[in-house]
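New to this. Please check both lines:
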Amino acid sequence: MVAGKLVDDKIPWRGNSGLKDGSEAKLDLSMGMYDAGDNVKFGFPMAFTATVLSWAILEYGEHMEHINQREPAENSLAWITDFLLNAHPSQNVLYIQVGDPKEDHKCWEKPEKMTTKRPLKLVNSSKPGSDVAAETAAALASASLVFKKTDSTYSSTLLKHAKQLFTFADKYKGSYTKSHPEVATYYNSTGYGDELLWAASWLYHATGDTTYLRYVTEENADKYAKVDGPTWFSWDNKLAGAQVLLSRLSFFGDKGAKGNSGIDDYKKSADELMCAFLPDSPSATASRTKSGLIWITKWDSLQHPVGSAFLAVLYSDYMRASDNEILSCGDDSFEPSDLRKFAQSQADYVLGDNPMDISYLVGYGDKYPEFVHHRGASIPVDATTGCTEGFKWLSSKKPNPNVAMGALVGGPFKNESFIDSRNNSMQTEPTTYNSAVLVGLLSSLVNTSSPIR
């Protein structure tokens, strides 16, 4: 959910919020997005949101133009990157959170009417956060490519900060949830190696500097990229995304990557990942529901199938555009159309082709969640609430008075059941980072395309 001073706001139940965010550090952190149904800005998932949205625009911007959505997508991206730039006031300082989630969760109130304090958290050389700093570097590097032709000055600024943040992340290694253990309750990082590889991959695409390519293919590949089996693309784990992004270099014969065996290793890992996705592959993952939805965790279950589908359709397009039409999985062979079929099956499930006959995308279809765990959507526009008085809207038996159009909720359990209740945040809370991945997936399926070389 967008924060700050809203310009040309088309949502009648939204208004300005968080206008003084960052003031205690004399920074303007009013922009950006609240991560989910609450009123906290978490830098780690917010940066991931920007990286994925950039990737979607870079690959499928033409598709977005067909439905007049490229400009809104770029505006949303800039709203996040403006926040991230301001959150990086000096080379080795990055502000990573606005608001206290513990205090925030004691209230149920619209962001426009927040009464809680808005303290800040940061990482620096003594309290490192390689994961969040590297993810922010990835976000700014990828966004620099999006705006390269339309605003070269802004693009250069984004890239300058991206380089500084990557150097900071690599020089002062450590996890941000070790520096700030209290954040682990909300967005615990399971390691920073994947973010370092992910950021270096994007910086190579943005700069062509082979230093970044050596970073991902030499000793750091041994440290961070060697894993058994597929990893699942999410706000916490970017390794699968890095594998697909780096395989792009192999598919399209990138000059800097030519003869680099390390890039071939990433492509091999990406091949194995795709084989795990395909249900008819001999190495297909068993981590899916009876109806075929990739399913990894009960919390926010849709993040993994949507992320898997997005990577699959990207890979499908890379294969087709580079005339690499065959994917070998053991003794079996598959084509780009098989990956696209898998991706479409995951999208169809999200949009209503599932045992519950419910669309998990709010506002789409005849039946979708009406009790979304979202403060702004659950409280009437004209309601006057303080911190705790608003809890009556959380427990109300009536559907949300405001429709959070386009929000992707958490999703079903392994048995494919879904309980539409505001108190069931495990299943009904939407997130901005899932929405960004879904934008990429749905944009990719508008039409077949040839990726930009």
